[in-house]
Write a structure and sequence with these properties.
Blueprint: E1 6-7, H1 9-16, H2 20-32, E2 36-41, E3 44-52, H3 54-63, H4 65-76, H5 80-103
Length: about 110
């Protein structure tokens, strides 16, 4: 597995602020599309690693090239203080939606 990017589901769940049950269908979908693969952790056979499939991920990144250039153009137009304000507002919006999703678990999140 040299050079491959991998995480265990618990780390990924923590990083994304998602419960393990909420993460499972996302991982299933990514796996069915060939973007990740699951493999046993040879140091601890009880654990599963999630490994990014570099080829498909690279294709996606290449497809978003024009968007990343535009985002970079927008970010360059903001002062550091404005970037911080934008980050603060987006973080607050994310927290509000996260709370809403927790209070309404039967609704499909966007």
């Amino acid at each position: 597995m040299s050079g491959e990017t991998s995480l265990v589901p618990s780390e990924l769940s923590k990083e994304l602020n998602l419960s393990r049950p909420a993460l499972t269908p996302i991982l299933n979908e990514l796996e069915s599309k060939g973007l990740i693969r699951r493999e046993f952790d040879f140091s601890d056979r009880r654990r599963t690693k999630i490994v990014l499939q570099e080829g498909p991920v690279r294709e996606i990144k290449n497809g978003f090239g024009c968007y990343t250039d535009r985002i970079r153009l927008l970010m360059d137009a903001f002062s550091p203080e404005e970037v911080l304000s934008l980050f603060t507002l987006l973080s607050k919006a994310n927290a509000v939606l996260s709370d809403y999703n927790k209070e309404n678990p039967d609704e499909k999140s966007i």
